[in-house]
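Forum: Protein Structure Q&A
Topic: Joint prediction for protein chains with partners

I've read a bunch of threads here and the consensus seems to be that you should model interacting components together rather than docking separate models afterwards. I'd like to see that in practice. Below is the full input, 396 residues plus whatever partners are listed. Could one of the regulars post the assembled result?
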Amino acid sequence: MTSTSSNRSGSTRPASSAADAPPVGPAKNPEAEPVSRDPRPNLLDFTLKELREFLRPWVDRPFRAKQIFRALHHRRVTDLQGVTELSLSMRQDLEMHVRVEMPSLVRSQRSADGTVKGLFELEDGASIEAVDIPDGRRRTFCISSQAGCPLGCKFCVTGFWGAGRDLTPGEIVSQVYTLLGQEDTREVHETGDLPGINVVFMGMGEPLLNAGAVRTSVELLAETIAPRRMTLSTIGILPALEEMISWPVRPNLAISLHAPDDARRTKIMPVNRTHPLRDLMALLHRFPLAKGRQITFEYILIRDFNDQPEAARALVRLVRGLPAKVNLIPINPDPVLGDEMKPPAPSTVLAFQQELKQRGVFTTIRRQRGDEVSGACGQLRAFARDPRGFRTPANL
Ligand code: SF4
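Posted by a regular:
Agreed with the consensus. Here's the joint model:
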């Protein structure tokens, strides 16, 4: 067995894993670690290579690891007893040492446009949300990487409620596997491939503050979902973005930009003080992209703040020279965000888009989906969680 490290959850992963990469961004809250009374590692947290090493003492043949891995990630079994490739006695033996643990889906809300928002409870009682957005034969899963977010962007409901712990790789991929089970997916279950499924890391949390687990979960999901159909959206945690260049499997990159200059960006995104636009854009200019891929710049439009024609022209100058696509998102108002966070009039949104298009920048306007279940962009907050210890309007 390879050398291992344990956290408070009792989860055990090989020391060489990406999860052991040095932390980036703000200091971690010690309360951010999962708390579990079960010391058995969760098999969903392991890559195939790690699983081979880890299971060696307990299986009779090396190929057992691959059988288990395929059962978990291709057939998406939810417990060890479902790995019927193994004998009953081997399954019973293994259950003494390892487990398969998935977050519980405790509530599922469907909006009129078919968008489904799922509320998941994690084993230590933390909660997260993920959204399933159907579009014809395609489905996009917007998943969470943290049970909250410490970065406090002023337009974001998740940020308003403050930090929550990092998710494990198994907790991240389980969101996809559970949402798949919400619909009739027998066809894709049987083939082991998931045509028409897209995954975006745009739910609760900043993925690059939990880069090790997100990197592992991308590798796990890539078993059945092509990397070109996965997108990681980040505000640009630069050391982690730099490391992402050498990830073995890289999803598409989306940058939460939201302002065309440092002055405005710092006002709504405190992280811009640590990672200013100049440094972010310099890194993006040398970020390797697969042939034909672009960097998506997410730009939330806020009335009278960043929606003027001069802001559009500054945005064009900022992204010039990059294979860029701009996605405009009229802000979703929410009572906790205050009166300043209002969307521009539709005509202003169209005029902003026109300024960009005229200057050769490919630009889309994001259609709002799922807003009556608060499943739209920036609205995920895990309503059911106990907010004690998190920021509240009184102590902001
Ligand atoms: S926008 Fe992203 S980084 Fe900012 S607070 Fe929300 S979840 Fe965190």
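Residues 104-395 form a domain with the TIM Barrel fold (CATH 3.20.20.70).
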